[in-house]
Amino acid sequence: MRRLRSVLAVALLTAALAPVTTAAAVDQGKGTPGYCQDATGVTVVVDFHELGGDPIVRCAPGEQASGLSALQNAGFELTGSQRWGLATLCRIEGKPGPEAEGCADYPPVTAYWSYWQAPDGGNWAFAQSGVQDSKPQAGSFEGWSFAKDKGVDATPAPRLAPVRQPGSSGVTPGGVAWTGGEALPAPQDAGFPWGAVLGGAAVLLVGAAAGITVYRRKRSA
Which residue pairs, CB below 8 angstroms and at least 24 apart, start in 80-85? Predict the structure, then answer.
């Protein structure tokens, strides 16, 4: 009995000291990265704005029962408020972090996720119903855009236009990259361009040698 108590005590201490882990970000087993390839799915755009990071574009294939279903079936990690659950989204992909938002109730009006919708090729507009009650149309866009210290009239829409781009390489025409939930590789420092410098020096040396040869020939003539 004494040994069992010791084992339990060690197990509880280990659990208490273990770091709290969160679910993985985008669930690669759900949805597909990038825009939907046709009008049978719903394209979901998440724009972090001041929270940092590139916007993420993913496709929730097939018919979607609600805006919440579209987010979940596109593979996004969601955290609802403690009071209202996923009816009030507090975090998307872990942002904003717990140090900035406790997720107890409604988020403050100075920092929250705004909900947008648009037809393919149309314009972003505020969703007219909640995330659990909305019904995205096939081929349409669902958008989530973080608003920090913005008035109602200045709430930013997602920066990516709601235009389906089948076969996109991952960079929109505006030059904004989406990650699809995977970190983009850091650009490598090319360092000082010694190749260009040495190549230019070689050209100058060849030119100078040719000039000296011509000059000597003229002198000898």
Answer: 81/105, 81/106, 81/107
* Torsional sign, CA 72, 74, 76, 81: negative
Q: Which residues of 98-130 are buried (b: 16+ CB within 10 A; e: fewer)?
A: eeebebeeebeeebbbbbbbbebeeebeebeee
Q: What is the largest CA-CA distance in the chain?
A: 113
Closest CA to 49 of 128, 141, 135, 116: 116
Cβ–Cβ < 8 Å for 58, 75: yes
Is the separation of the CB atoms in 174 and 55 below 8 Å?
Answer: no
Measured CA angle at 47 (ends 44, 48), to 5 deg: 140
Sign, CA dihedral 90-91-96-100, equals positive
- The tens digit of pLDDT for each residue in 158-172 reads 999 999 876 654 445
Tokens matching residue 44: 């979901």
Could you report the per-residue pLDDT of 95-127, keeping only the tens digit for each?
Answer: 999 999 999 999 999 999 999 999 999 999 999
Q: Give Cβ neighbours of residue 167 (< 8 Å, ≥ 6 apart).
A: 37
pTM of model > 0.90: no
Cα(118)–Cα(209) distance, integer angstroms: 67
- Contacts of residue 183, defined as CB under 8 A and 6 or more positions apart, other chains included, come to none
